[in-house]
């Protein structure tokens, strides 16, 4: 399944529309006022299904992920020489890739979970997310949101 992640232009807080390959809205992401990024994810029916929340007052960006009110994991940026690195603590998955060029993948052991790439030369942040299994859609979206927010916070967008 492919998703298109597109940031809304002219919004005070982070807001994104997430479309499927047919252009149908799958999710709407709305930023909330808080210390750090706080992104609420709503399904097409308007029901809140997840939240990505940046922990305040950490040296490097760290994001906690929730499905409903249940904590499901975190992703954090780590110090690495010459390129950004992210550590994922969710489902035993690992995130790898070329974060300078905005191309990365998530794996569950050797099984690919998703691939994400930022589309350049757009007015707003736009990503193509290729998710291998439908049950991984929400977690994959939360990971892309967290990495985008971390890179924007550090001025690397």
UniProtKB/TrEMBL annotation:
Domain of life of the organism encoding this protein: Bacteria
UniProt name for this protein: LURP-one-related family protein
Pfam families: LOR
Family to which the UniProt record says this protein belongs: Belongs to the LOR family.
């Amino acid at each position: 399944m492919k998703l298109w992640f597109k940031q809304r232009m002219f919004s005070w807080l982070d807001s994104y529309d997430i479309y499927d390959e047919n252009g149908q809205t799958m999710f709407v992401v709305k930023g909330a006022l808080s210390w750090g990024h706080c992104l609420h994810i709503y399904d097409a029916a308007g029901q809140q299904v997840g939240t990505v929340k940046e922990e305040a007052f950490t040296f490097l960006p760290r994001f906690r992920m929730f499905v409903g009110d249940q904590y499901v994991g975190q992703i954090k940026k780590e110090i690495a020489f010459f390129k950004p690195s992210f550590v994922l603590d969710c489902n035993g998955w690992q995130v790898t890739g070329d974060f300078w060029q905005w191309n990365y993948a998530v794996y569950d052991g050797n099984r690919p979970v998703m691939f994400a790439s930022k589309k350049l030369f757009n007015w707003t942040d736009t990503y193509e997310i290729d998710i291998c299994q439908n049950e991984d859609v929400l977690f994959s979206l939360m990971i892309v949101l967290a990495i985008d927010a971390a890179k924007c916070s550090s001025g690397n967008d």
